[in-house]
Amino acid sequence: MRLIGLDPGLRSTGWGIIDVSGNRLAHVADGAVRPDPKAPLASRLRTLHDGLMEILEQYEPDEAAVEETFVNKNASSTLKLGEARGVVLVVPALAGLTVAEYSANRVKKSVVGAGHANKDQVQHMVSRLLPGCTITGPDAADALAVAICHAHFAETSAVWSGSRQGVAR
């Protein structure tokens, strides 16, 4: 199964693609879509849309996972981030993918073991879980962490569904 993890942001939306086979994870690619910060909001959102569509077409993931965002103190910034997050959620949905969402604490806990880990700790553990990969930056590392988190939870969910079906029969 091929998964894409997405870390939404209006300045930089990180993305990371991994392949999952049982409990084995393999790095495929990662990066970030970076709209021009001086462009009007609508243009920046379109850049996110077009960039993510291109990535989905190129790598053809089976499922997507998106990190939930926290509310900022600045209401205007929160609203703009929410608009970017909306694009990040709808692009894989338009491509026909199932889209899961995970809180930042859940992602960090599943990758690092602590829900309040810092970016350096996340990047370090992603490198350990995906040996041999060269991560292009902190946003891409966060996106790969989201994909890894989804791999762990999707596997558990599949096992639970299978065992429930077995019991019901």
As a percent range, the share of helical residues equals: 40-55%
Shape descriptor reads: globular
Which class best fits the helix and strand makeup?
alpha/beta
Helix segment count? 5
Distance between the termini: 27 Å
Query: Within the largest sheet, what's the order of strands?
Result: 3-2-1-4-5
Radius of gyration in whole Å, from Cα? 16 Å
SSE arrangement, N to C = EEEHEHEHHH
Largest sheet: 5 strands, mixed
Strand content: 15-25%
Mean pLDDT rating = 89
Number of strands: 5
Low-confidence stretches: 163-169
List keywords for this structure.
169 residues, alpha/beta, 5 helices, disordered C terminus
Description of the structure:
- The protein contains 5 helices and 5 strands.
- The chain is an alpha/beta fold.
- A 5-stranded mixed β-sheet has the order 3-2-1-4-5.
- Helix 1 runs parallel beside helix 2, helix 3 crosses helix 5 and helix 4 packs across helix 5.
Short description:
This protein is 53% helix and 21% strand.
Topology summary:
Blueprint: E1 2-7, E2 13-21, E3 24-33, H1 41-59, E4 63-67, H2 75-94, E5 98-102, H3 104-111, H4 119-129, H5 138-168
Parallel strand pairs: 1-4, 4-5
Antiparallel strand pairs: 1-2, 2-3
